[in-house]
Specification:
532 residues; alpha+beta; six-stranded antiparallel β-sheet; 8 helices; binds alpha-D-galactopyranuronic acid
Length: 532
């Protein structure tokens, strides 16, 4: 993928973005853009099926080559000259397939409901289909770097990082430089691990997001990262970065757009972050799936905190007791962590959005998946956004408590927002930070109503104003808020919920699906800015 900070300058990579041959089921042969979602194009709007993408692959020599796909929605098989060489389940995450020789590449992409256990039509978002993120052919050469993991373990009195480098092929000469200082030069193979003290390098924080270039070279290959030296922790009911309490003011964001589906161009993701900053926000919850890496890079350099979440939506005992669902969820967690772990902006790992955390039968599934997250990366607090706060039986498993609640929309009235929030937070372990992870109301852009009733821009603006002021009031127990939701987004046409989604859109956005402002836009900006 075309990262903001290219991961490889030396490795020979063919960028496969462009227009490929395409055919959806029995339709006539056609073409489709990569990245792109076919059901966001006029001819294939709303179409579900198996889309076959095809193009030639030319390998320049006999060394190992790898096809790297950053997000295919939502399950696919990869064929070379008609022979299956790989498959993948679940969108939004990067995976690789070894390519043995030149030939005709086909990616058979399935966006039907149930093609992946992680993408179901009863979820409250539209499941666009396609090769939605980057596509590249990597020449690995005789010795290559498979992965680099940088974990900040301390920042005081000096920054200390754990560095792990997985090497393929070789052995070969290995050099590592960080912040312009050479840390290692020798021959190596296998996995290299080091704990390094880095005196003199500036720390990363939301207000001062310093990043330092890391470059590893192994034989002809290279791997580059931007390292943010920071430690995220909890201190009683506060979330801290480098020991300093932080308050997270932000939004939930779906990575989608009516004209692009899940394949947003970088200019759109950058524009979204400009609007997030205009709101006075410092926080984005990527609901409810792993984020594009360029988006994370932009958050790294702009000091925007990210709640990175594995794909799920209201899982219950059936899903959390199903071995195939759990395995798909584990793979999604593994792949989310692999992409996001080196990005300092990711301050929280989230999963299992609004799962049945009040059902004891679901607790083993929570334990298994939260345990997986912690085993992969013990350096970040773990959370889930729950809507069973008063009867939750899994809260002890997480470090930060997320509360989803919709007073003034689905229940109660705007005048009740404070009382509802206070009632819920009274059920939360007082030794843990608590974030309002979702709160909001529908506001149809252009619908202005003197009565300020539900569905109007006025009602949405009034509700968000009340919620933000209560959460950010002096003495509040809350350490953050994420409004549901940044922008209106297309949702699934599942009955009967769609009857509450005019236009088939969830319109709780602070801006509409084309990022055009509503009354709530300025209201949120005023309320957030008043508190910073
Ligand atoms: C839930 C869910 C969101 C969205 C929201 C709503 O909190 O987590 O994805 O569906 O409700 O708009 O009702």
């Amino acid at each position: 993928m075309a990262r903001r900070f290219p991961r490889h300058l030396r490795r020979r990579i063919v960028d496969l973005r462009g227009v490929w041959d395409f055919r959806l089921d029995g339709d006539p042969p056609d073409v489709m853009a990569v990245p792109g979602c076919w059901d966001a194009t006029p001819r294939y709007a709303g179409r579900r099926g198996v889309g076959v993408y095809r193009r030639e692959l030319l390998l320049t020599d006999g060394t190992p080559h790898r096809l790297v796909l950053d997000g295919v929605q939502h399950a696919c098989r990869v064929l070379l000259d008609g022979e299956e060489i790989g498959s993948h389940d679940g969108g939004f995450t990067r995976f690789a397939v070894d390519v043995p020789r030149s030939g005709v590449l086909e990616v058979h992409v399935d966006n039907r409901d149930g093609a992946s256990p992680l993408h179901r039509d009863f979820y409250d978002w539209h499941h666009y289909g396609g090769i939605a993120r980057g596509a590249e052919l990597h020449r690995l050469g005789p010795a290559w770097i498979d992965d680099v993991r940088v974990t900040t373990v301390a920042v005081d009195p000096v920054p200390v990082v754990d560095l792990a480098i997985d090497l393929g092929g070789g052995p070969a000469p290995l050099t590592v430089r960080l912040g312009g200082v050479e840390l290692r030069r020798d021959r190596a193979g296998g996995t290299v691990r080091e704990r390094l003290e880095l005196p003199g390098l500036a720390r990363w924080s939301l207000r001062e997001p310093h990043l330092h270039p890391l470059e590893a070279r192994f034989g002809e290959d290279d791997w580059r990262e931007r390292v943010g030296l920071r430690v995220v922790a909890t201190d009683g009911d506060r979330l801290t970065i480098n020991g300093e309490p932080v308050r997270l003011l932000g939004v939930n964001r779906h990575d989608s757009h009516p004209d692009h589906g899940f394949a947003l161009p970088d200019d759109h993701r950058l524009a979204d972050l400009q609007l997030v900053e205009r709101l006075g926000a410092n926080f984005v919850r990527g609901g409810h799936y792993p984020q594009d890496e360029t988006f994370l890079e932009l958050c790294d350099e702009r000091g925007i905190a990210v709640w990175s979440e594995a794909t799920a939506w209201q899982p219950d005992a059936r899903q959390l007791g199903d071995e195939s669902w759990l395995r798909a969820a584990e793979r999604n967690i593994d792949e989310m962590v692999a992409v996001a772990r080196n990005h300092p902006s990711v301050v929280l790992w989230g999963l299992l959005n609004e799962g049945r955390s009040d059902d004891a039968a679901c607790r083993p599934g929570y334990e298994r998946l939260i345990g997986r997250l912690r085993a992969l990366d013990p350096s970040r607090p773990v959370t889930y956004a729950g809507n069973h706060t008063e009867h939750d039986v899994c809260e002890d498993l997480v470090d930060v408590v997320g509360v989803n609640t919709y007073p003034g929309w689905y229940h109660d009235e705007i005048a009740d927002v404070g009382a509802v929030l206070d009632r819920l937070v009274a059920h939360v372990d007082p030794s843990k930070p608590v974030i309002v992870s979702e709160i909001g109301a529908e506001g149809v852009r252009g619908w202005r109503d003197a009565a300020r009733d539900r569905w109007s821009e006025e009602h949405q603006s009034d509700l968000l104003d009340a919620a933000i002021r209560h959460v950010l009031a002096d003495g509040s127990r809350f350490t953050g808020i994420a409004i549901w939701v940044f922008a209106d987004f297309r949702t699934s046409n599942a009955m009967p919920r769609v009857l509450g989604r005019p236009r088939n859109y969830n319109q709780k956005g602070v801006v509409d699906e084309y990022r055009r402002p509503k009354l709530a836009t300025d209201t949120v900006a005023r309320a957030f800015r008043a508190s910073r």
